[in-house]
Amino acid sequence: MTTVPAVFPVTPSTAPSLERSWEGPDKDTTWDEAKSWVQSLNLNGGGWRMPTMDELAGLYNKGAGDWNMTPLLKTSGWAVWSGETEGSSGAWGFSFLGGHRFWNDRYYSRTARAFAVRSRNDG
Question: Three-state SS for 37?
Fold first, then answer.
């Protein structure tokens, strides 16, 4: 069973291309674990994916909550994996602590979390 701790309805002002963002389990997560969790989601019709770097940057809000993100996202980690990879062993993530992109090996997990997003269907 997939556990989803919270849902955050994304507004056009925070991320115009997104309908919703879900936070994953609040534990240190490798990129492969994040990808597997997102692929296992079948909530509200599916269509979930890992966020892009631009989408993560759009959720950054300096001074908001504990980690510069909406307090609606309850996570003890400050880094979130994107769906963007680099070669066969690296991936990109976003640091909400510093407001910047980072690259790391896909097996890195310390403070890293998974979010799942779904694109807005304006049609």
Answer: helix
Percent of the chain at pLDDT exceeding 70: 77
Q: Which residue has the tokens 């997560």?
A: 29
Q: Where are the domains of the chain?
A: 6-119
Across the chain, mean pLDDT equals: 79
Q: Global pTM? A: 0.78
Beta-carbon contacts of 83 under 8 Å, excluding residues fewer than 6 positions away, are: 35, 38, 49, 50, 51, 52
CA distance 41 to 88: 24
9: helix, strand or coil: strand
**Superfamily for the 6-119 domain:** Mannose-Binding Protein A, subunit A (3.10.100.10)
Total residue length of the chain? 123
